[in-house]
Amino acid sequence: MITLAVSAVLVFAIEFVARGSFVDTLNFFQQPFKPSWTTVALFALLIIGFDALLGRPYNGLLIVAPVALFLAFVGHQKSLYLGDPLYPTDFLYARQIVELMPLLVRERPLAGIGIVVGLVAGISLFVFAWRYWRRRMPALSFWARMSRLAIAIPALAFFVSIMDYATFSWTRDRLQIIPMMWDQKENYASNGFAIAFALNVPMAKVKAPQGYSDKAIDAIAKPEQAAAVLPEEKPDVIIVMSESFWDPTLLPGVKITPDPIQNVRASQSGHVFSPEFGGMTANVEFEALTGFSNAFLPAGSIPYQQYVRAPVPSLATFFKSEGYETKAIHPFGGWFWNRAPVYKAFGFDQFMSEENLPPLAKRGPLASDAALTEEIIREADATEHPFFFFAVSLQSHGPYEPNRYSDTTHKVDAATTPWARDSILTYAEGASDADRGLKRLMDWASKRKRPTVIAFFGDHLPPLGPVYVETGFMKEPVAKRKAPIDEMLVQHETPLVVWSNRTGPARDIGSISPAFLPLHVLETAGISHPYYTGFLGDLHDRFRVVDRNMLLPRQGESVFDWSRQKELDPAIRDFRWLQYDMMFGKRRGAKGFFPETVDKVVANRTRSPLFLRDQAFG
């Protein structure tokens, strides 16, 4: 009974830390159809199990409590900053968080001090408790330890067995544990932090979608064009994904002079509907390079970290097969978002990162957009063959602390707190630098004889936090995952430019998922491809946005919770099957949709004149 009481107090503390609300925590325990007391029993079993291993009663609390409370604290901070709860896979990129910590501390120094003080106090308390509490607890006998293990291990093993949300469990249903993987915010609110976190563990493995088979892949309509077709004069292609690039003049009641994104505004082709907000850049990048969708992967997953372990077809794979030189450029560490091995799997010849780039001038604490642009131009001028470059900027990474730049060129008028106004100025200055970078790139390309296509877009809205609330742009500091379509578009759209030095900017693209970017880039370049312009082209005739929570058709009303419907739209179903087939399945669709990955001889100047692509793809 004492263990149950201790467990109840601990679970209440975990939920209070994770939710940040005493009332919400109290409601969680008072609701009969929420698994609060199941969680209490689970933690009691954990404490009993650790007691047996450590050999003394209640010593398991010294292990379970610090770990659980730390995870709850991190989860609460993530939800405040990015709007998403904590997932088990987040720890795959823990190094990113550590590396970006100086930026976070610069914006909130008092919070940084508080974290340090809290860590020191927590560690000190843990050491004190371990040394003195452990001494005062009597040692358990051999049989007492065995009896505890006999209770805890089978019960915990059974609990683990029912955590696979993809399989129905009568017991899980009776315990009021209802997986809500399509709505993670509600999943954590309803099931509690600990159980929701556990439910997300199995998402590291992607199961075949219902109906997937060799026959199903063979039945997908093949494009009329069985092979890629390029113009006689192959165009160079540059895609720049600009960190957190967005239009800050959309903030209500805010006037910024001069216009920070005047060049993008003049050449704008449409918008990218980002599947993310404030972060998770790699997920947007995944869609833009592969033409696949995060909508078909488990919520909270990061394909760069979890799923790209072998060659995956991408724009780089295709261009490389046509004799292009393919380079990825990002002025940060190659380990960040696991980019180095991912870019190799995507077919890039070279990844130019912080490790092998020449020193780039900084503006603020990070490599400047101007320096990155000049590096892109330098690399292009030194390349004789047709090339495909993919660049990811860094300068405008958040947070946007006031006075980041000492030489600002803009003025902000806003009825907000001085901190919010100065934060807007910091962001606007960075957005203006990115805008000027695009202008420099277009001016350079305009003077080139070789046809050149440039695509430029923002990966997601910036994490401006309180600025959104103070200006009335949003009711909360983070965007919603499900809301009326007008609200979703405002909170997830970033500017998109697709431009050619022969034909100028593409127009009227509208709002598109990043997965459709390859379609518009290749069409502007005059290139056709069985998948990127064929399959995606047909899909785009039906849908503009394919999001985890929403489908936006070209005509008609948006469809929410589409993945929960008994029957999927045939076009979406085929999209899902084909993506699974190429990422996790037998790649039966490779010959029809990605012929460059099958028996294709590819120019590769970094190793030998030729090598067989099918050796990599199998």
From TrEMBL:
Residues 235-527 form the Sulfatase N-terminal domain. One of its GO terms (cellular component) is plasma membrane. It is found in: Cell membrane. Its main location: membrane. Pfam families: Sulfatase. The chain crosses the membrane at residues 36-54, 61-81, 110-129, 149-168. Keywords: Cell membrane, Membrane, Transmembrane, Transmembrane helix. The keyword Transmembrane helix applies. It comes from the Bacteria. CDD domains: LTA_synthase (cd16015). The keyword Chaperone does not apply. It is a multi-pass membrane protein. This is LTA synthase family protein. It comes from Aminobacter anthyllidis. The lineage of its organism: Bacteria, Pseudomonadati, Pseudomonadota, Alphaproteobacteria, Hyphomicrobiales.
